[in-house]
Amino acid sequence: MPELPEVETTMRGISPYLMDKKILAINVRQASLRWRVPTTINDAVDHKVTSLTRRGKYIVASTDQGSIILHLGMSGSLRIVDQPFELRKHDHVIFDLCGSKSMIYHDPRRFGCILWTDRAAHTHPLLASLGPEPLGNEFSGSYLFQRSRGKKVAVKNFIMNSGIVVGVGNIYASEALFSAGIRPGKAAGRISAAAFDTLALEIRSVLTAAIKSGGTTLRDFVNSDGEPGYFQQTLNVYGREGEPCRRCSTIIKQRVLGQRSTFYCSQCQN
Question: Would you state the pLDDT for residue 210?
Fold first, then answer.
């Protein structure tokens, strides 16, 4: 699944083609995504995109009529193409833009969504309950420490809870916990304030590095140019079960937490 850095990279990639530009037409070829694409999305046609933001793993394109809320789901991607163009299988929604360009939403598994709201985007049910952004000012070690008190849930699952903090997905949670030296299965309520300070810094660091590198190379992810990201080559633990730790040479272990594969070094993380 595309994670926060992939979504941020995608948003930055499409921004020059959408910001302050009119959406000329929207062609919904397949409306049955995770939720059905509403016909009201055509209210955006002939209106300029006045704001393009990311909230968690959602991309929000706002006009003076309302906002398009887009999620890439498990396998979704966006690409900007010149007109005319050849459609690919699983090209479900086409946005015709200025300058003879189109933005195409491609999603083989159809777990993503494209929705419309005529109210303030942050009040939409999908966005209203989200926690703070991990790269924003509201996120800190002290915030994590306060929210974790009394929690028996594994710290990895705790930081992957979008109600606690948004956008810390499986890959980057594993990487941040490794960098912070924290065992992923340890109860969140047993983590010290100092350890949470370190973890918050490492979450920021690993996400920032991934954004700069263009996201993670996952099979289903392509950036706005149709090319994969390149962060995977610097991963320390994720996907490296049975390989030596880059720090201490201990063999990387794998376990399942919250139905997700988790990778860690038993020597470096405690």
Answer: 86
What is the span of the domain harbouring residue 11? 4-128
Amino acid at 44: A
219: Cβ contacts below 8 Å, ≥ 6 apart: none
Is 6 among the catalytic positions?
Answer: no
Residue 240 is among the residues annotated as catalytic for this protein: no
Average pLDDT over residues 105-111: 95
The structure tokens 């189109």 sit at 102
Among 253, 172, 261, which Cα is nearest to 216's?
A: 172
Question: What is the overall mean pLDDT for the chain?
Answer: 92
- Flag whether pLDDT at 65 surpasses 80: yes
83 and 146 both lie in a single domain: no
Do residues 155 and 47 both lie within one domain?
A: no
Tell me which of 22, 34, 110, 260 is the catalytic residue. Answer: 260
Rg, Å, the chain Cα set: 20
149 included as an active-site residue: no
Which of the residues 2, 5, 184, 228 is marked catalytic?
A: 2
Q: Is 86 a catalytic residue?
A: no
Residue 226 confidence (pLDDT) above 90: no
Residue 233 has pLDDT above 80, yes or no: no
| The two three-digit tokens of residue 156, written as one number | 């990895």
How far is it, in rounded angstroms, from Cα 198 to Cα 212?
A: 21
Angle separating helix axes 193-213 and 4-18, nearest 10 degrees: 40
Where does the pLDDT of residue 197 fall: very low under 50, low under 70, confident under 90, or very high at 90 and above? very high
* Residues 148 and 116 reside in one and the same domain: no
Q: Is the pLDDT of residue 229 over 70?
A: no
Amino acid at 110: R
